[in-house]
Specification:
By secondary structure, the protein is mostly helical. It folds into 4 domains: 44 residues, Zf-an1 domain (Irregular); 38 residues, no CATH class; 47 residues, Irregular (Zf-an1 domain); 28 residues. The chain contains 3 helices and 8 strands; from the N terminus they run ββββααββββα. The termini are far apart. The model has no long low-confidence stretch (mean pLDDT 81). InterPro entries: AN1-like_Znf, Znf-C2H2_ZFAND2A/B, Znf_AN1.
Length: 195
Amino acid sequence: MEFPQLGQHCSAKTCNKLDFLPMKCDACNAILCKDHIKYDEHQCSSAYRKNVQIPVCPLCNQHVPYEYRDQSPDRAVSAHIDRDCQSRKREKVYANKCSVASCKQREAIPVNCEKCSKTFCLRHRFPDDHRCQGFQHQSPAKQKKQEDDDYMFAKALQESERQELQRIRRNQTTSAAATANTSASSTDNKSCCVQ
């Protein structure tokens, strides 16, 4: 015995199942079964009205408020980018200009000369290619300080190497003495056991 007045058919195009406990979509008001009640499962065209998530701008990572409730998130973000997005003030990727006067090349990564500390493009990166003058533009006091710093660094490095060698020699002599003591005690044990 059938009860045709009980239940309703699912309004999903591929389903049309008779459901005795149908559910109504709160966005599009369609009658659906339990398998198709989620917005994505029945491709709800009005889901964005009930979606209360605030979109985030992909350029400046700021929250973008809706102008009106029925507006789609894509349009809100698009309007934000057109009007008041702060990403327009981004740094340029190729900001490292070559220091050679006639060259207009820019690089993404700074290429600094070790002698003159100026930034150059890949074509002029070697000292011979950009007619490097070295540290001649520095004052004599600054050059003297650099030489003194280099001397102190070399002296400290030499002292640490000397201390390391002494530590290694001490470890070798203590390990050799310990080996000698171990072998002497083992021969004493053998002689006492043989008797």
